[in-house]
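Ticket #4471: structure export looks truncated?
Reporter: QA, pipeline team
Priority: medium

Steps to reproduce: submit the single chain below to the structure queue and open the exported record.
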Amino acid sequence: MITSITPFLLVFFAHAALSAFTKTARSGQDYVEPNTAGTWCYYPGTNSKIDVACVGNKAEFAPVIDAHISQGVSISYYGADHQRLGGAEYPVKTTAGKVYLCLSGRAGDGTYKTECEISTADNQFGLLSRCALAVSQKTVTDGCYVSGVAPTPANATSSATGTRPAESAGSTSSGTASTLNSASATHKSYALGLGLTTLVFVFLFVN
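Actual output as written to the record:
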């Protein structure tokens, strides 16, 4: 009995030792935990801190974010050469040199967040050395979230009208002004024509 159980125990402990995420991890309002299918996913909180761009002392994260959003696994580890090492199961301490952890997900308010950071330990994210952008991956293959453009009031209006709300309002105002100017010109032309006709009749009547 013990002999038959031993291989399963070895597999279990080997898996635990070689897994980057083995328990729910939290950083602020952000979580990494399994979804209902057992896939480790990243769940950013609403109103997360977002960088405008990865520049300055965060410039090193720009190329790895580009690499991350171009592939479809929402949690991935990358080497110093920005090549993907593995997903949430990747054991960080088995790699010599710098290791980046990148996570992408969608918050409850529909906004997206992708962040990359330098990783030094398993079951850990949200360290100080990182860059986070309000973008999603181009495609998502692990079922953690649906990629795309986050819905905002401006985007919703633009998709319906094809223009920004301010531009739409400007176009309406311009159109109304053009209509009024055209009507005014037509009225003036009609009045001038009527006046000339009257003068002709008066001239013929007198003569």
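Status: closed, not a bug. The export was complete when the record was re-opened. Leaving a note from the reviewer for reference: The chain has two domains: 16-151, 158-201.
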